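ingest -> validate -> predict -> emit
validate: passed (alphabet ok, no gaps, 265 aa)
predict: started
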Amino acid sequence: MSSLQDCQTLLLELHGGVLHITLNRPDSRNAMSLQMVSDLRAVLASVRDDRSVRALVLSGAGGHFCAGGDIKDMANARAQGSDAYRDLNRAFGAMLEEAQHAPQVLITVLQGAVLGGGFGLACVSDIAIADHQAQFGLPETSLGLLPAQIAPFVVQRIGLTEARRLALTAARFDGQQARRLGLVHFVEQDPQALAERLDEVLQHVLCCAPEANAMTKQLLLASAGQPSGALLDEAAQWFSEAVTGEEGIEGTMAFVQKRKPRWAT
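emit:
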């Protein structure tokens, strides 16, 4: 763990067998940059075989969880060609797979923006606690893009019917609706209630044996079926084609220029 204190995009605090991981890019509502993906993957790898770390608590700095992918990273990738888009997208999918399979209990604390990639992180958590005013959504199609790496995890979490509705309308919804969808387990009214709920959940987690929890989680995930690496590879290629296509260029430019894309005016 000591070697990870230099993470550029995360704040890490370990105590009582619980590693608190805070996404720390508040100026961009904790948008998921390639550096943040790399930092998260490094943290997950560092604790994978450490049973003294019993739980991972993932939250965001500055009142937001995560507003999705970093548009600046996509702009940088444009200069490198379509392969760079595919690789950027697939790295995020790999991080989701690794988070999904973390032997520790993964708890997300969701406030403010929970969009795109942030939505995906909520979907791979074992236990999700949300503020009632948190704003959830899959905005990718409104930008001319695909929720490429996220979609299989969303379907697994809330089912195909609701995933289709949300992804094909880019609809926003709050914590109470997220609870009704089965995306989150607890909804609280204020930061103090969120903290109290987290403490309660952790007390229960820490009553369970760490290796038993790790093996039980592995069993449950195997029983439910998993988004496959082959599908995520193909989805990354589709994302690359979308982001370099006419709609992707228009959608991302409209976002940067703070205007509606052509198809929405």
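The chain has one domain: 2-190.
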